[in-house]
Every structure is written in C-alpha cells, then in structure tokens.
Amino acid sequence: MHRSDAPFVSVIIPVFNDGERLQQCLAALAQQTYPRSRFEIIVVDNGSDDLAGLKTLVTAYDNATLVVETRPGSYAARNRGLAVAKGEVIAFTDADCVPAVDWLERGVARLSQDPNCGLVVGRINLFFADPQHPTAVELFESLTAFPQEQLLRDHHGGATANAITWRRVIDQVGPFDMQLKSNGDLEWGQRVFEAGFQQVYADEVQVDHPARRLLRELYQRTVRLAGGYYEVQLKQAKSLGQRQRMFVQALLKNLVPPVFFVVNAFGDGRLKNLNQKLKVSLVMVMVRYISAWEVVRLKLGRTSSRV
Questions:
Q1: Which of 165, 182, 210 is the last residue of a domain?
Q2: Residue 267: what pLDDT?
Q3: Are 119 and 148 in contact, with CB atoms under 8 Å apart?
Q4: What whole-number distance in Å separates Cα of residue 19 and Cα of residue 9?
C-alpha cells in the first residue's frame, strides 16, 4: 500500500522492563508494507527500571515516540498513548509481539471494509524458544493462550496484543478502565459491542508472540488473568448478593477438576506423546488451583497483581 490517502495510524505499545523484546517489535514495525509516512509508533513506558535505555532504543526510529505513564497497569499505559495519538486508526500490540510485515496493511484494510466496523481482532501465533524441546508450560500455552476468535465470539473482545479500531470508536465508548489489571480489553470490547459496532476476527492480520516457558511466568499470568476476570465480574454486580454469588461461582469453577480439558488434551494431535499430554494436563490442574486461590485472596481484601 503506497496511497497518500491511507488512514493515519497510531500504533500504541505499552512496555514494562522488556527492552530486548521491544527492540524486536520495533524492528518488525520498521518493515511494514503500510506507508511509513502514514503511521506513528507510541511506546508507553509503565515504570521500567532503565528508562534511559528505552529512550535510546525508541529514538532510533524516526516515527516512534516514548511517553511515560507512572500509574501501574497496561490499560493506564494504553490510555496515556491514546492521549497523545494523532491517528484516525488506533492499532494495539505489545512489546513482546512481532507483527507480520503486512500487519497494518491487512488490519486497516479489514477495518475499512465496513463503515460500521468498530474492532478488528487478529490472530496471535505462539512460538517456542526451542521448537524441538518445548517445555510443559509452552505446550500448555500453545493450546490455551490468546484464542482470539473464541474471545470475540464469546466475550465480544480480544487481546490488545493484536487489536485495531477507529479513534472515533474510542471517543464514543471511552478509553480502557485503568482500575483493571487484566481483562480490560474484553471489558472495552463489550462496550464497543453494546454501542452497536461490528466486530471482526481477521485471521490474516497476524502477530507472533513467544509462549511462556517457565512455571513462574505462567503463575504470574494466571494470577493476573484470574484477578482481572474476577474484578470485571464484581464491577458488573449490582448488589452485595450478586457479588457473593459471583465469588462462589468463580471459586467453584476453578475447584472443579478440568475433566473436559484433560480429555481434549489426550485427543489433541498437537501433543506428540503421552508424556506431553500428561504434563499439559497437570499444568491445567495447577492453573485452576492458582486461580481459585487468587479469587480467595481478592475476596479477603488483597489487591490484584499487575505482572
């Protein structure tokens, strides 16, 4: 695409202590087929230890800008990016993502197909550090992480690792809820849906994302997602009784053994042998109980995690 009338795009990328992978993300954006003069990159630091290093990295790209958001949380960071964005189109990705070279071109084309389209959610491809020797956590992630099409169908939203919208849509439905540490992308997508905009899953609009490798990394993600989902549910509750029921439902959902997941895992051709199937099933059990404990922790008045 080399048209001077291409919509101007603002790509917003929050970052927190992830300069090495941000460099890969920026390098991929520098190779985009979308006209370089028609998009800007806004990197939003959210409390990284090496701000000077990030500034050096970002300023190496002539269409990239670094801004700072001191309030912790990726949604606060994205809102900070929105405050300075100049684009008619807003594209969200994450510092650890590697967008395909035609990510913006395909994303903007899909967004522009229908004048009432309010959100394009694209595919997120997971990759392993060592494809020949994936860890149990990587295998688990490959089966469960970022099911964009399912998220859009069931929750009317998608992960902001790969989401594109019009600025006018954000102006109408409002920015992200900064109080949420996770699931804020789904909560925002629900508002887009309720406002009557069309939402599209576009398999051809792709970014790559590294699968988490270690149990520690999966633990952090599980705590963040469980807390975010529970907080969204509480926000929607209108009475003390509803909040109590949501607590019980969330607890029971995670305490029930994941029988269907285990059955599906044993029949999934992506898992090559019995050892992989057993390991992934055990990881799923662990995730369920970590989630249950996080719900109890939040019920006792603790705060949700940002990492």
A1: 210
A2: 82
A3: no
A4: 23
